[in-house]
Fold these 2 entries.
Entry 1:
Amino acid sequence: MFLTSDPKAIDLQAKLFRGFGDPSRLSILTALRHGPLTVTDILEKTGLSQSNASNHLACLRDCGLVTAEQEGRYVTYHLSDDRVGELLELGESLLSDVARGVYECTRYNVPSAGTTKNKAVLRTLPK
Amino acid sequence: MFLTSDPKAIDLQAKLFRGFGDPSRLSILTALRHGPLTVTDILEKTGLSQSNASNHLACLRDCGLVTAEQEGRYVTYHLSDDRVGELLELGESLLSDVARGVYECTRYNVPSAGTTKNKAVLRTLPK
DNA sequence: GTATAATATCATTGGTTGATGATATGATGA
DNA sequence: TCATCATATCATCAACCAATGATATTATAC
């Protein structure tokens, strides 16, 4: 057996996709798609709580998906690379054709954006 | 406050990206990138255990990212849409520029592909 | 029919993650 | 200096997910 490619590269790439795979982070990235925004703007647009957004922004910043600039009292965030936006776009496009399947897939679920009130999970439906 | 876009769409899109955000699933998708493969082929290429691969294949199938065809005793899987491959490619390209940041991001971690022996997690480093 | 190879299903469980709430830091203006 | 606004940090804990191992199903060959 020889592996498709370096498992470490796979792990890293999976981690990269996870950056996009959380509703809070994804809503932040989506909000930034049309231009830079202040944290305050992000809070307004996404409806996330302050500390939640700040935690995720730190994560996105560490991962290199967004960059931050202090401007007076405010900090302005923007997407770090055009490919981040392209990935969002491609995901959106793909989703438009596979949405039903994704919706019905019961192996995993995402938490509802910004809240703890998660949907009931339907793991294993009896045949 | 008005939200960037339908939270339900965000949740779904996040769920889609999660399809790519697990090392086992990602290694399967990557293995399929150069053409259709039998489950047995996938096991060989990825090193995943049979039941683990089968579980993830079911998930990818449900989500519409791959399709399956029975051929005799074997089942052949292939990517369902060109955009799946494009997403992998774009992710790879982006990773080549942000890999260090992703590696060092400590907010979340992926399990090592196909095994339970996970790396130690370094959640919160003291300043 | 029986045996065997290929794949699928599913319950269990340990480790991980994300939201929260409290607190800390930093920047500006009075 | 103090007050206040903007943002960051961090510990806690409930919820979730993925690997495993056992078992079931399906297909072929004999």
Entry 2:
Amino acid sequence: MIDIHALRETPDRVRANCRLRGCKTDVDALIASDREYLETIRAVEDLRALRNRLGKECRDNPAARDQMRQLKQDLAAKEERLEALKKAVDEGLAWLPNFLAEDVPPGAGDADNAPLRFWGDKGDFRFKPRTHDELGDLLGIIDTGRGAKVAQSGFYYWSGAGAQLAMAMFYWAQQALVKRGFRLFMSPCLAKSRTLFGTGYLPFFAEQTYTLANEDLALIGTSEQTLVAYHADETLEAERLPLFYTAFTPCFRTEAGSWGKETRGIFRVHQFHKVEQIVFCLPEDSPRCHDLCQENEEFLLQQLGIPYRVVKVCVGDMGAPGYKKYDIEAWFPGFGGYREVTSNTNLTDFQARRLGIRFQTRDKRRDFVHTISATAITDRAACAILENFQQEDGSVIVPEVLRPYTGFDRLSPPA
RNA sequence: GGAGGGGUGGCUGAGCGGCCGAAAGCGACGGUCUUGAAAACCGUUGGGGCGCAAGCCCCCGUGGGUUCGAAUCCCACCCCCUCCGCCA
């Protein structure tokens, strides 16, 4: 949520931002509603002040009680209007996208993201490298067939050495973040609508969300939702910021509307697993913290030895809550291209404002914190491991950093 | 799931239907004192909204109701705690 004062004081900036980000909100109608809201709240407060003054007389002046009854009717009518206006303004505001960093590149989709840097050696395969799903089949470690049988198409099992590899990777990544000052959480995997609204997933990604029937609960799309909302309605001491949080959870997404996109393998699925990085910080620190999360992401991929490139995400490929976002695209030799494995978003105060997460300094400066939400690692990195470290016979070399956790250094096809 | 108890300011904890945004204690902050600290003493100490400001409005779990007037009475809901049952 943006600050409503921005709408009042710099409407042109908000209009331009909406146009740029393809927001369908009628900004002028919203401004009109807000203007009437302000008028109405002043009128209501005047009536309330009158009521409060009159109320004091009522004790020993019965005549004032009759006036009071009349006043109450007037007030009730105005309050009803006020409530309707507030609802209209809130709904309009809920759909306004965050402002953008100045250096966000223009563009409509992921093809327009701006590559920033490349890391790693793509290696040269003297055979035709297999895709992760082919390797998953060959090694017997990814089972989409049974995922569909048991749950639905779009679900899968990691099994055997593959599950060990994935769990090793997740555990290793968690530990790496803890060493870098993150506090590890195990979080709920369901959250209420207020939590999803507060983190910006509602209303913007409503169709991506699995909700439970007869409950105000949804499966989380990411632990960002539960980690950020952890501090909802709290005022954090500025001296203790920034806070670095991490969790490992499953992430559930309906992927409505992405039929036919990247259907091979387990690249786009209804349930994946993620180690997340969340930061709460002072507004002036968010660019630095954003970069810090980026370093962590790159550190992890470098340790694993996966070649990648970093792209600065363009306007059209960034969700409405985002202010600035980097993606890392890992090299997938079997696929023959770069594919997104992490993303790292500075949300500025967008989530904090919705959730009421503030900071206070010793000298009583109070404002909303900024939040950063960044991937540390997901199943997709395990897929990249498979493709990058595959051998001609289909076996896969385990990255050295994971071997203490897998207990083996190679995944081999069954004899 | 069954039975009981409870939700008030950072915490503990008072609050006859009007004088309560709310006693008191603790904590925190500022000051006096001290070489420094502690102790003692004095003072300050919730948040949100509207307004240039003075100031006004709102908030005692949430939403309704009674009343001229509700933290205080009534109803519904939510949440927490204890005991019992079931259980990873």
